[in-house]
Amino acid sequence: MQNYIVGIAGAGNMGMQLALLFASRGISAVIWNHKMQPGFANDFNRLAIIQSRLGLVNKEQIGAITECIRYTNNITSMAGCDFIIEAVKEDKQVKSAVLKQIDSIATDAKVIATNTSMLSITELASFTEKPGRFLGVHFFNPPMSMKLVEVIKGELTSDEALAFVLQVLGEINKHPVVIPETPGFIVNRLLFPMINEAVFLLSEGIADAKTIDSCMRQGANHPMGPLELADLIGLDICLSILETLVEETGDGKYRPAPLLKKYVRAGKLGKKAGIGFYSYRKRS
């Protein structure tokens, strides 16, 4: 197929990586942000170079890949896109406002999707006039290398929208798993209770962070321990997902560890803040 244009709403870490993912497959992408970031071109080029060193992008093609990208702060620039992925802040109010704008200007888009990792697809679809063309496409970070994409059907998602997204994901060499709407989807519903339990172990003094992570790497063959992973994801995001699971299921087994709340309140959000369960600050 590939005769289509992809729109990415949100030029943060995930949005930029999604734009690179599609552009590296020769698919034109419009990436929108609510305000222009002066360093976007340099950041995008740096990301492409890093991916080339990992063997995920042909270094000789970086120039051509960049030509496939159009960066803008004018949301109407996505009006001609066929497939739009919302990848803004994981906040229902922010997402609803952006989705309303996208829905009003992209009247001919085949599919409008959200990359949410936890919010209700059916509820987000209710902020659009055509919920049949709306669904969830949950890419995992980093999307260039992670094969899995959870495709979540809302209550009103059409078969046509689903078929289109599955075809697109096949063309970019992803492994889609189609699931009905459920709190946390599959991966996060399994993953975050483990992370939460690791925080409880730490707070109870059973073991330190390095020991807990080492046990899971060496005993369960995980490539990264749960506390390392939490730092990478962001402790604020971990907390938000656990709170959503409690809210949506009413099940106390997802109750966030008090230590996790304490760290978030203190601004110890993980790698992006320079400190979380580990310190990432350079020693002077």
Automatic annotation (TrEMBL):
Protein's UniProt keywords contain Oxidoreductase: yes
Annotated GO biological process: fatty acid metabolic process
3-hydroxyacyl-CoA dehydrogenase NAD binding domain ranges (all copies): 6-180
InterPro entries given in the database record: 3-OHacyl-CoA_DH (IPR022694), 3-OHacyl-CoA_DH_CS (IPR006180), 3-OHacyl-CoA_DH_NAD-bd (IPR006176), 3HC_DH_C (IPR006108), 6-PGluconate_DH-like_C_sf (IPR008927), 6PGD_dom2 (IPR013328), NAD(P)-bd_dom_sf (IPR036291)
Site (Important for catalytic activity): H138
Keywords, comma-separated and alphabetical: Oxidoreductase
Span of domain 3-hydroxyacyl-CoA dehydrogenase C-terminal: 184-280
PROSITE patterns given in the database record: 3HCDH
Oxidoreductase in keyword set: yes
Gene Ontology terms, MF aspect: NAD+ binding; oxidoreductase activity, acting on the CH-OH group of donors, NAD or NADP as acceptor
Domain of life: Bacteria
Family of this protein: Belongs to the 3-hydroxyacyl-CoA dehydrogenase family.
Protein name: 3-hydroxybutyryl-CoA dehydrogenase
